[in-house]
Amino acid sequence: MTAGSASEAELPADPAGAKAQVIQAEGVRKRFGDNIVLDGIDLAVDAGETLVVIGPSGSGKSTLLRCINLLEPIDGGRILLEGEEITRKGAKVATIRQRIGIVFQQFNLFPHLKAIDNVTLAARRVRKVSRSEAEARALELLKRVGLEEKAREYPHQLSGGQQQRVAIARALMMEPHVMLFDEVTSALDPELVGEVLVVMRDLAQSGMTMVVVTHEMQFAREVGDRVLFMDEGRIVEQGVPADVLDRPREERTRRFLRRSLQLARSLEELTIDQGGAE
Ligand SMILES: Nc1ncnc2c1ncn2[C@@H]1O[C@H](COP(=O)(O)OP(=O)(O)OP(=O)(O)O)[C@@H](O)[C@H]1O
Ligand SMILES: [Mg+2]
What we know:
binds magnesium ion, binds adenosine-5'-triphosphate, alpha/beta
């Protein structure tokens, strides 16, 4: 055996055979004043993967999404989108953001614009897509989120769940390569949560790459390819949902899951009498 073949045998597996990574974070650090909010985050999200991020309030989940979307500058490390370092100096932020859709807890629709105009606005302004082309695509997207017949309604004529679905259609309008969701069902009445989760599930099944911050453990379990638990700006553990949620390795994860379960139970028992309206 020649020295050449021995060293070839030690080469790593063909990287082309591996799944393309849409998002990579390497040693990402972020602080607000003295408060270290992201403390060395290493992360990779594969194409078509749904990564669910859970963790206590203040653990840095929203900040992580905001850093990925370049809404917050980072203080250390780097973030790559489809192999391109987007946190480098001189990166074209506006163009990069078009590839990253983000949906927040608050829908932030323009109240004076009909649903369809909320969806088409950015494409028409930023991408200079014609009105007819933009509207045709917006109608398709509104249909996809189950709101075809609400296209001409204003936000105040829509329920919270419907508004959130418009916000999802709006994000999809820019044809993002990855979608970030930050507790998008947290502000909704419980009976409206399901219709939004179903849209997200279908999107995940269609092959969209997604990072989903949520408290909806059932969604994490059924739709997540991987669950990641964060605490105090660090990734504590991650893995397939059944492992992280049912057999967590770390005590901190166990404590968090126990607390969320207890909270869900006590909230179920808790019924607030709304001042005796009858
Ligand atoms: N713009 C800001 N200025 C100063 N501090 C901030 C800012 N945004 C977030 N923080 C702080 O960063 C920490 C992480 O906040 P972040 O919103 O990322 O947490 P989270 O995990 O999303 O929490 P929650 O579950 O409550 O949404 C918190 O201590 C928060 O107070
Ligand atoms: Mg948050």
